[in-house]
Amino acid sequence: MLEARRAVRTLKEYHPPLGGRVGLRLDFNENTVGCSPRVLECLRRLQFEPLARYPERESVEHQVAAHLGLDPAGLLLTNGVDEAIHLICETYLESGDEVLIVVPTFSMYEIYAATTGAKVITIPAGAEFRYPTDDVLARISPRTRLTAIANPNNPTGAVVAKADLLRILRAAPDAAVLVDEAYFDFYGESLLPEVMNLANLFVARTFSKAYGLAGLRIGVLAGSAAQMAMVRRVSSPYNVNAVALACLPDALADQEYVRQYVAEVRQGREELQHELQSLKLHFWPSQANFVLVQIGERHDAFVRAMRERGILVRDRSRDPGCDGCVRISVGAKAQTERLIVALREVVRAMAPTGVPA
Ligand SMILES: Cc1ncc(COP(=O)(O)O)c(C=O)c1O
Question: Is the distance from CB of 353 to CB of 298 less than 8 angstroms?
Fold first, then answer.
């Protein structure tokens, strides 16, 4: 009988709840109002020609490199950051290699790393989900070939200081260090300029979040030119679709749209955190477009009650160290106002039976 590889058979299944997402989508950290109107205009103008041809990413890649201040040889457009993670794993990991992952974090690191047959070593985050730099340094061995760090992290919203990232990079020169900056726009600090100086550093960015293009599947992987030449060998020449390539220059050109949305989200994040404090709910201060909240035993009922009010939030209580936690994304101003009204109602309705703790 045909059998999948052992590494695949033993893989944990990951099925994000994508079905029936009707309502205010505060469950997947997406942009909640959509992309720039310039992108929609570009889509309307599209003719058959770019769809009939295989996509050619080079010229758009050059534009993205110019936008980010990078050498195009050190940059690859990818089918979202998901594919960037996959490509790094396929390029660097052999069966039995060690991968260090601090949890809780984005699930795809573990999935793609484990698929190669590498040994995934999970390290719990420190108190209040702080990045445990010393614990990570202590686990680095000659077999360590990869560590992936979401900065800001999902689902906690916590960040790692640049000095700590540099310590890891220097301590593991034979390992790929992937700094996943999917939520960079909501934070503002980046290691991207360092890719030209540090041979083992890779930085990933996405257009799925602040730019509102999650459905187009487009992201960026940056690294030193020499290492990216290796990653390109693994990548399909047609990994990025023609529609995404056609629209990306318009998305990049409308920085004012992204700036405005990010400003609203940052303001909303402060308002939400302030509200959570007033409601006496424990939460973790976030630098991303979401906040992780400790709801307690009734996390299920909380998610359901929010859904009844037309607001989708994500139960994260199964993530390591996240018992009773729910992650709430932040959107535009009016949506945050609506969220806060619903939150007050739900928390008050549940208070006699356990929320807040
Ligand atoms: C930390 C992190 N990295 C990557 C992604 C996926 O990004 P993309 O849509 O570019 O594949 C997510 C999505 O939630 C994320 O939270």
Answer: yes
